[in-house]
Design brief:
The chain has one domain. Helices cover 32% and strands 17% of the residues. The chain has three helices and five strands, in the order H-E-E-E-E-E-H-H. The strands form two sheets. The protein has a three-stranded antiparallel β-sheet, with helices on one face. The model has no long low-confidence stretch (mean pLDDT 87).
Amino acid sequence: MIKTPEAPASRAAEIDALDERLSKRFIALDPSGYFLIKLDAEAGELVLEHFGNTIDEKGLARDSDTGEVLSCKKGGHGPRAASAVYRGRSAKEIGIQLTEGEGPHPLSRLDHALYLGRELQKAEQCLREGRVYEQD
């Protein structure tokens, strides 16, 4: 890995502001479902749970079984059973599980795949450093 000089604080603040602004844009939901990322520090693994959903005519995600609108807030839709669980020691290991080999693959949108890769990298860094990970 190539070392680069530390970015000045103003550059870091500028990047943070850009990231915050970009996070507020409209994104279409992935009809293949969504993921929750967790850490299993004891096992030294990232845990990725996949949940299916149905996207209605208004673009809202609904529980495929109950038809209820899924909330984005923590604890907003109660316990659901994951349709699949992926475990790995690194973001790369999980990424390979999600995208290589025989399908079907649980991602259908490139923007969702990019988001997931970014979040898995952040989760891996937290696992390496023994920090708590919170998914954006």
